[in-house]
Amino acid sequence: MRIDCKHVWQYISAYIEGDVDAVLRAEIDRHLETCEICSAVLDSTRNVVVLLADDRVFELPLGFSRRLHERIDRELGPAVDT
Amino acid sequence: MAAVCPNSEVECIRRILSGEKQLFHDLIRPCERSIYLLLLSLLKNVTDAEDAAQETVIKVYRNLHLFRGDAQFRTWVLSIARNEGLGRLRQLASRREESLDAATDDQTGDHTPAILTSWREVPSEALEQKELRELLRTTIESLPEIYRNIVILRDIEEMDIRETAAALGISEGAVKVRLHRARAMLQRELAPRLKAFAPKRKGLRWGRA
Hints:
By secondary structure, chain A is an all-alpha fold. Chain A is built from 5 helices and no strands. In chain A, 67% of the residues lie in helices and 0% in strands.
């Protein structure tokens, strides 16, 4: 059975996650070999996922960690461990 | 991340509870970023997110004796962060008389991808450009909340499906469905605009060699 583009799109995320069974993966792979649209959709989605994982996209506010640990210090009280 | 804490989180917690309080700094440090980003996703305001992150961390400290080693420490921490964030949203909503539970999985929306016939990879080096970082941030921020949370935890903080589900108090199936829809929405929004950040010609290296 040949699967169509819409069918492939339903599984793009799962395919990237490696969360499709072997039969479905083979069907999708076969489709991708001849469908430039689905290949581009897959590649662009994967590209977005890779970019998002980069720590530079969301940075903590300047001084966030220092202020947080000062707050913790106030909670912990004097720095004398028993 | 290299934890200064000896052995394991559970051992570290045991030592904190028996008096080595300063170890709490090391215990919480690897979770800071996830706490902040989850709260930023919920509250959509950097000042509120930082304030709520501090409150969360103090609650974690005060409730440390309640942590059962059956979940990952970060998962437990994030569920406390989520409750803190939702509590604040509820207060805001009751003030504004708005409903919180507007967005659900039944929301259909359009999950059709942007149709392209080719794709030129945008390399990570392109993130040096402020415009690209801003584009990614604003696009994520524009997602409905139930999708935004998932993207923050799974794709930005790179938590696995199970941990994401536990932190958000939803099923793994729901995480997968939402992740799929969120990625489709992101691809749809971003793909046409990301093209501008791809290297100009195939085979040409990014930047100067």
